[in-house]
Amino acid sequence: MEDLQLKLHALGKEHIEPNEDRHIEKIIQAFKHALPEYYPAGKVKRMFHPKMHGLVEARFSVATDIEQRYQHGIFLPGVEYPCWIRFSNAKKKPAPDSKKDMRGMAIKLIGVPGEKLLEQHVNNVTQDFLCVTSQTLQTRSVHDFQKSLSALMAGGFKLAWYALTHVRVVIRSMKQISACNNLLTTSFFSTTPYRFGNNETMAVKYAVIPQKNQPVTPAVKKTGNFLKEQLINDLSHTDFYFDFMIQFQEDAKTMPIEDPTVKWRSPFIKLATIKIPKQQFNSSEQQNYGESLSFTPWHCIKEHRPLGGVNRARKAVYIALSAFRHKLNIQTEQEPVTMKTFN
């Protein structure tokens, strides 16, 4: 019994729930059924974060004085990567920006060496980080998420019954969403954990925090797309900076790998700076390119392997849905090799 408890509370340790693959397959089928219904005519958008505010060019620079103990994977002193950042709303169908929601920041580094984890992308040169404006998610496990999804898709009595019998999930869902006035002054978090280096006891979560006292332009009128309009205004005037940070799992019981509803309490440590330079990004060509890109935490090298049930589900779900969406849109799914330029 003592050995079992030690195993359950080991740092960096995953614990796969029974029938997880079956629950993941149900999620995939539910989403494949829903997407054509959401977009019966025209371009099919993503199941997650369908409303894009903008795809912007950025630079990811690892600190030159990074300590030896943090030098793992992409985090080597002074290394720089060009990258794309996609800002988005999380609601399953595009909605006015004034509504409370989670917002997303998806980062795609270009030119990352090393073998990647996904078999179909093993030789690619990209590394993705996916973050949102909440530090936690609403469901504890893949099975819990599948049950909530089933109720949501069914609607009516089933959804009402689920809400009555899963009050904590509903409360957590409400706490996840919030108003947002400016994407460039907002903090983003990974919510889920990741391996850090080759030591299997080292796990981290990520945060992307805006640097203080940056000059934003006067607030725009809160139209249905004001977050995009504010982003256009701000980036037409000046550069913006974010700190890329990690926090370590320090206690396997109070900072679990498999339960993303729990907020980790360890300190954040800065490893890199993200610079979003002054730019124009709203051409139709660049918008279309942003819509065609696929983001998944599994676009990564092994030193940053995603951990936990939610990430295991993401691996299968994102691959399946991206292929499904590109097929419906008659698009070729490709990872970038270099930074694309736009007029």
UniProtKB/TrEMBL annotation:
It comes from the Bacteria. GO terms for molecular function: heme binding. This is Catalase.
